[in-house]
Specification:
globular; single chain; alpha+beta; 8 strands; 4-stranded mixed sheet; about 15% strand; disordered N terminus; 11 helices
Length: about 400
Amino acid sequence: MADTRTETTLPSSEPSELLRTARDLVPVLARNADQGERDRRLTEESVELLTSGGMFRLAVPKRYGGHEASLRTLVDVSAVLAEGDGSSAWVVAVGNSLAWVTSLFPEQAQDEVFGTDPDTRVSGVLTPSATAERVDGGYRVSGRWHYASGSWHAGWSVIGFPVPDSSGRIVDQGMALIPAADYTVEDTWFVAGMRATGSNCLVARDILVPDHRVVSVPRAMAGDYPVQRSGGPHPSSAFVQFLTAAPLAATQLGLGRAALELVRNKSAEKAITFTYFEKQRDSTAFQLRVAEAAQKIDTARLHVHRATADIDGAARRGEALDPLRRIQARADLSGAIGHVTDAIDMLLTAHGAASFADTNPLQRIWRDSAVSARHAILHPSMIKEMYGKALLGVEEQISPLV
């Protein structure tokens, strides 16, 4: 097979340039957000601009023409995009987190996904909601996978499945790369928020997945990736922490900043009903509420940046995060999301009932934040319990996702 990998195509992988590109896209994403909600998928204009701006290449290895950006850069860029549209940021961040997962596979699989098109978008679901049979050279897999964000725009997907041996006994949990031609997208994403993410159900029936497109999830969580892997340090990042930080925390940060900016801008022209305040900004009570919301958003950002610094730093050093720091990173990310949702609630209360008008972007920000904050991997009580056990030296585990 000819080596189609390339170092060309994009102007710069410098974080400042990627952030500038993302900032330039915010007005267009904001303008298209309503149409995306109505269509329950991103508009073609948004997808084309995100693609041409290199936003789906953030986590693609450089040897294929990608940016191979740090987790911190991926988070910061995705957060900026969320200031324009939460769904767009979510699809970009999820797509990049799964592009990063793809970089953990044997290079033959990476060549198939990125070798001819580094802009290939990846969707997927790691939940092993499937059946599989061991066959010569791979597995026969059938299943249904909810909820695959960006499903309408993906060329490949990562799916989870229980791995059997030749006798049918389940011996592992795997994730597999499958091309879009091998599955169908069932239109099931009818929700209150994040409507344009197209997080639909993937359906596959009796497809052949070759061995080189399968990776063990437990081994990946332990940092034991295939020996064929090559490139920079980022594929060594902590598995669960990378997947949590990229799409989930980043989008929330941008939504929080967008809500704060909208409320600040309107406060100079909006009165407080049933009071003598002709401008909200003149009210001490309003000022205090906005200040508290801003502090919560800042606190969230600081926690996210601490987590990404730990994850990126360990990857650069070629080290694995120890169990306590892994769960601390998850606690940082989960706590950050709680701070943002609290801040958005404060801002909507301060702004008033007009926040919920269909024409007001605040109500979409509120819905997008509320839906994405309930992702199962972020369960705040569970993560707090895990963190408390780790701090106290309690060995009992309540989740495999450490």
